Amino acid sequence: MSGEKTEQPTAQKLKKAKQEGQIGKTPDLGAWFGILAASVVLPKTLGKAMELAKELVEKIPDTIQNPDPGKTLGIFRDALQGAVWAVLPLALTMMLVGVAGAGAQGGIRVATKLFMPKFNRLNPLPGIKRMFGMQSLWELTKALVKTGVLVGVLYMTMKDIVPKLMQAGQLPLASTLKLVSDAAISLIRAAAAAGIVMAAADYFVVKKRSNKQLRMTKEEVKQEYKNTEGDPHVKGQIRARQMAMAQSRQMADVPTADVIVVNPVHVAVALKYEPQKGAPRVVASGKGPIAARIRDLATENRVPMVQDVPLARALHDGCEIGQEIPAEFFGAVAKVLAFVMSLKQKGSAAGLHRNPNAESASV
Predict the structure, then answer these.
(1) Model's pTM, two decimal places?
(2) How confident is residue 334, by pLDDT bands cut at 50, 70 and 90?
(3) Are residues 261 and 297 in the same domain?
(4) Judgement on whether residues 130 and 198 belong to the same structural domain of the protein
(5) Do 72 and 183 reside in the same domain of the chain?
(6) Where are the bilayer-spanning segments (predicted)?
């Protein structure tokens, strides 16, 4: 059936989908990669935070013994600045990884059309259909799997760390804190690795569903081709207008020609020779009706016409309008121009003349 969407989306269709934010991607991929990257930066962040806390604690007794509002505010300001500098690498890492994750899934583009109000979004029926559709089932499955995997990761991590924490009372505070921080980072990395695997599966499902939604019917592909490349009928009309304009321009140059080489009926080629510009140029050329129009203009403007069947055909087939004649025609054309010059000297150049140097040929 012609209405079935069996064709892959065209480049134009995909470009429009990106502009409207309809490309398949999942935010989970960038988020989990961000968490994994954060687990690498987190130890340094915690180390700086511990150093900052230690410095703050060391200043508290002196502040209590010598209360000074200015000094207290200075300590608070230094602590706040230190906290910002400690957390900044972690925040930047997560932001950059998140942006890179979004870019890897089809580029970063602000879909402005999504901000435009559409009243059809207020229709509850599409939302109800989605609640009981395959997409809703996939989201539910994804949530259950995600929860199960995270619980499993948490259990496996805590199973090893809980016995050590039970004996933490016999360890120094620094060792206990290091034990807890190492366990937390291991938990984060394990959860991030599992999350990346699930996000990758979600990406492929979303991408496949998006490509299926963007498929086109054969009629849509044909219509888009017409819109992109142009309707053949319109292109034909444009070509016809261009040809008409070109013919109009060349007809305007006929009165300035030095000679018209004719067939004498079927072909006419107008030549103009300006020594300072090089070899003779073809200013107009044509067959049939165009040749007849060139001859009429030549008669009206008293431009000499010379009948030379082989030369007329050769010039028409081998020369472009507006270009100089090729070297192989120099000799024959020079004889024609010399013949026209002799006619002008006699005052009888206008009209049709037979080239005395031409080879005999049938019309």
Answers:
(1) 0.41
(2) very high
(3) yes
(4) yes
(5) yes
(6) 83-108, 137-156, 183-206
The more confidently predicted of residues 189 and 268 is 268
State the Cα–Cα distance between residues 288 and 290, nearest whole angstrom. 6
Exposed e or buried b for every residue in 4-43, given b needs 16+ CB within 10 A? Answer: eeeeebbeebbeebeeeebbbbbebbbbbbbbbbbbebbe
How many angstroms separate the CA atoms of 339 and 350, rounded? 12
Q: 205 and 87 share a domain? A: yes
Kindly state whether residues 345 and 205 are assigned to the same domain: no
- Greatest C-alpha distance within the chain: 130
Per-residue pLDDT at 108 exceeds 70: no
* Enclosing domain of residue 324: 254-354
| Residue 112 included in any domain | yes
192: which strand partners? none
Distance CA 180, CA 43 (A): 12
The pLDDT of residue 339 is above 80: yes
Q: Which residues contact 294 (CB under 8 A, 6 or more apart)?
A: 251, 254, 260, 268, 270, 284, 285, 286
Average pLDDT over residues 313-332: 89
> For residues 124 and 20, what is the distance between their CA atoms, to the nearest angstrom?
21
Total number of domains in the chain: 2
